[in-house]
Amino acid sequence: MTAFGKVSLRGNILQRGRSKERSRLLVFNHAVLLLLTAFAVLPLLILFFNSLKTKAEIGANPLGPPNQIIAENYINAWEQGNFATTMRNSVIYVVVTIAAELVLGGLAAYALARKKPPGSDLLMLYFLVASTIPLWMYIVPLYTQFRIWGLVGEVHGLIIIYIAGNAPLTIFLLRSYMIDLPRELEDAARVDGANELQVLTRIVLPLTKPGFLTVGLVVGLGVWNEFTLALTFIYDPSRAPVTTSFFKFTDRFARDWALTSAGAVIIIFPVMVLFLALQRQFIEGLAEGGIKT
């Protein structure tokens, strides 16, 4: 065998070895992904099964599929949980909070990314730390101050808390998208006579659209699923958000787990539809934000 043949044979052997190693790694990756998918999907599947059972069947068979489908659970849960009112309220909370966060947070992030005022790095560190602190840790002084101001029990009072609580994360994420944008486009717009607001709305916003979409989804999901603050600051059931509907399925001594499961599915369904519709933009936004941060 010639030297060239030996080199070629050795190369084929190495290539086969690498292919086998890639195949093993691919099988391992798929196994891990399937395991994580099972952890994510199985609880939702069990919840859906329980939403179609009677209370007695849930006690006897809490994990398996229903023996008899009770679709009326959804109708009863909708009426008993007053979802027509609470879902409308939650939509108001979510829409107003997202709009305020994107407008105010976008302006603040642009100023920090482009103007870089003194102490901006320290301020971003503060935002990063503040975004990791749960809001309920200072709920007592917050409640005391809001009671003095007369905002306890008011819709706009709860919205103010949502906006303030999500502002650090919003500004931190949006700044991370804006800080690495090419300045040449902005400078060219200024040369053409554009002011700062026009530069922001016509140049920066189109380039950071995935970032704004990501922030909007994160803030919206947080407000939609929030429970503790709503329970503390809202007394009137006609102003309560959707998460408080779970109280309607509890009496003095027991809870109706069939209606509770049906109510949970009702709450989760709009979120799942929205996420599946925007999942590509959401994932792209997270990836771009992670790289730029």
Question: Could you walk me through the main structural features you see in this protein, from its secondary elements to its overall organization?
Answer:
By secondary structure, this protein is mainly α. The protein has a domain of 168 residues: MetI-like (MetI-like fold), CATH 1.10.3720. It is 76% helix and 0% strand. The protein has 12 helices and no strands. The longest helix is centred in the first third of the chain and has 48 residues. It is globular, with a radius of gyration of 26 Å. It starts with a helix and ends with a helix.
* Helix and strand sequence: HHHHHHHHHHHH
- What is the mean predicted local confidence, pLDDT? 85
Structure annotation, total helices? 12
Name the poorly predicted regions: 289-293
Provide a short characterization of the protein structure.
The chain is mainly α.
List keywords for this structure.
globular, single chain, 293 residues, MetI-like fold, mainly alpha
Blueprint of the fold:
Elements lengths: L2 H48 L4 H6 L11 H9 L2 H33 L4 H11 L8 H11 L5 H24 L4 H9 L4 H12 L1 H17 L2 H6 L23 H36 L1
